[in-house]
Design a protein that fits this description.
There is one protein chain. This protein is an alpha/beta fold. The protein folds into two domains: 322 residues, Up-down Bundle (ABC transporter transmembrane region fold); 241 residues, Rossmann fold (3-Layer(aba) Sandwich), CATH 3.40.50. The two termini are 45 Å apart.
């Protein structure tokens, strides 16, 4: 998606894949090395098993058909062969169990670490970064991209086992016949060449698949978020059609990738089969020439039979390297995004109300830098004062309230709480000093008590006191489970007014020195709003800034800030502005008519 966090366009290669793998397993070397040791034990056991089969062929099978006189010797050979086979089976079982268990442990730990690290990165990024990146991309990073990144680890210990198996097999084959060994080992360079061609072909199709996953995830997320609107406005056919377009695009891209993979897998899987066939044919000539014994050819065939599946796994590893590099290139800008160190935790007097000042604030959204939404804002709110921000739609009221709350990083230098700018304030100090309630209140799919007390650090009486101040306590007590009632995701099981009052209780519970309300009572009626504001003023003992759209609210505050086109047109009491500003009178008249109508 253009304009969002960029993708590192480093060309995927086996070298890049090796670097990604090393980066992933480095913090988890203990279980990874144990799994590789298990793979090596399994590989050694496999080669020994092939040698045992060759010995059994020469010493037991052929002897049984050619030398009947030595029955006692044959019986001893049978018992010896059985003991060897059992010992090798136990050895191989121990190796494969160790490999699988510790390989699974490694991949699960890596996946957990990458998901946790991505989540921490998301939470510590500034709001400007989060606004720039789509929700679909963020979800795809944590889910699909992370899964593809870690997929390369699943066959990795087995692939290391293949390396050991090839090394042990090469020694055994060279001991039997160097020419046979040369033919057998030629399969691996062939597979590497095929993978090199594959990596160049598959790079862009794989990246397009991951991008389509992000687009589809974003479309689905938007539909889920707006489920009520979709249903009430009858937008289901349009949403289904929009989703179908994204799903078809993803299907087409995945089919294209599958087509390429199918062709490559045909060649990769053909290599060991052709190599085995060549070895058997050539080995037959060597047996006929007397260079190799029947047991030797059985050993060679057994080795290649044992190598067939591991070689396919090795091919799967080579295929997985490129997608993992593509996934890492998508995740890397997030994982390695520099995080500004938080300011030092300077002390702030939080014993009572604190004033808030705005000094020469001009703000524009990053995607529209030439269109400032706030211009030359200078505002001083005294400790304990209640100020209303009013203005027509699009005047910048919500943007100003967000700046006061410290949500806008680019505006933090111009906003001061006490004598400290928000930019120089530690995040924990800022969130303790400032409480912020939005018009669109967000509730989590948990209990009402947990939604009010997000950090879980308050007692139930404190939660109830905050709920009473927000005029929501009486309603909560009518519920069968009271404060333990679980609300639906995003609070869909409660009304808009109830969501807003729960959010108000959440802001009040923290006893912030400054409370910012961005039209946070718009979904309740005027009578309830008046009662809420009265209780807020009595309970909070805080400096309050309220984005107001109701005359009753405006009449109850100490001062009013009239905002027009991102500028402060007038500041004063309600009565003063009525006398001094015709624009303000027209605005108030519109509010009054809306309340009456």
């Amino acid at each position: 998606m253009e304009g969002e966090v960029g993708i590192d366009q480093t060309r995927p290669s086996m070298t890049a894949g090796a670097r990604v793998v090393a980066m992933l397993v480095r913090p988890h070397m203990g279980p990874f090395i144990t799994s590789v040791v298990g793979a090596a034990v399994f590989a050694g056991g496999t080669v020994v098993a092939a040698s045992v089969l060759g010995w059994v062929t020469d010493s037991v099978v052929i002897q049984a058909f050619t030398d009947d006189a030595e029955g006692v010797s044959l019986a001893e050979s049978v018992w010896k062969a059985a003991a060897l086979v059992l010992a090798v089976a136990i050895l191989r079982a121990a190796g494969v169990v160790s490999r699988r268990y510790f390989a699974g442990m490694t991949s699960e730990r890596v996946e957990r670490w990458t998901r946790s690290h991505l989540s921490r990165q998301y939470l510590h990024q500034p709001m400007s970064w989060l606004r720039r990146v789509s929700t679909g991309r963020l979800i795809a990073h944590v889910d699909a991209d992370n899964r593809v990144l870690v997929d390369v680890l699943h066959p990795l210990p087995f692939a290391f086992g293949v390396v050991f198996l090839v090394a042990f097999s090469a020694i055994s084959l060279i001991r039997i016949d160097p020419l046979v060994a040369l033919i057998a080992l030629a399969a691996f360079p062939a597979m590497i060449v095929i993978n090199s061609v594959y990596s160049r072909i598959i790079e862009k199709p794989l990246a397009s698949v991951q991008e389509a996953v992000a687009q589809l995830t974003g479309t689905a997320h938007a539909s889920f978020e707006g489920a009520l609107i979709v249903k009430t406005l009858g937008r289901r056919p349009q949403e289904v059609a929009r989703f179908d377009v994204e799903a078809d695009r993803l299907r087409e891209r995945r089919v294209h990738v599958g087509y390429i993979r199918a062709i490559v897998e045909l060649f990769i899987q053909s290599v060991p089969v052709l190599a085995t066939l060549a070895v058997v044919i050539f080995g037959a000539y060597r047996v006929e020439a007397g260079v190799m014994s029947a047991g030797d050819i059985v050993t060679v065939a057994a080795l290649f039979s044992a190598l067939a599946i591991p070689m396919h796994v090795f091919g799967f590893l080579l295929e997985s390297l490129i997608p993992s590099v593509v996934a890492w290139n998508r995740l890397r800008p997030v994982v390695e995004a520099p995080l500004a160190p938080p300011p030092s935790r300077a002390d702030l007097d939080v014993s009572g109300s604190i004033g808030i000042d705005v000094r020469d604030l001009t703000f524009a959204w990053p995607d529209r830098p030439d269109e400032p939404v706030l211009r030359n804002i200078n505002l001083s709110v005294a400790p304990g004062e209640v100020v209303a921000i009013v203005g027509p739609t699009g005047a910048g009221k919500s943007t100003l309230s967000a700046a006061l709350a410290g949500v806008l990083d680019d505006a933090a230098d111009a906003v001061f709480v006490g004598d400290q700018s928000l930019a120089s304030m530690h995040p924990e100090v800022r969130t303790t000093a400032i409480g912020y309630a939005f018009q669109e209140a967000f509730l989590f799919a948990t209990s009402l008590a947990s939604n009010i007390d997000l950090d879980g650090g308050h007692t139930r009486p404190e939660v109830e006191a905050a709920a009473k101040a927000a005029a929501i306590h009486d309603w909560v007590m009518t519920l069968p489970a009271g404060y333990d009632t679980v609300v639906g995701e995003r609070g869909v099981t409660v009304s808009g007014g109830q969501r807003q009052r729960i959010a108000l209780a959440r802001a009040l519970l923290r006893r912030a020195n400054v409370v910012i309300l961005d039209d946070a009572t718009s979904a309740v009626d005027s009578v309830v709003e008046e009662r809420i504001l009265s209780q807020l003023r009595e309970a909070a003992n805080s400096t309050m800034v309220i984005v107001a759209n109701r005359l009753a609210t405006i009449e109850r505050v100490d001062r009013v800030v009239h905002l027009v086109d991102g500028r402060i047109a007038a500041i004063g009491t309600h009565e003063e502005l009525l006398r001094q500003s015709s624009d303000y009178r027209d605005l108030v008249l519109a509010y009054a008519e809306a309340a009456d109508g």
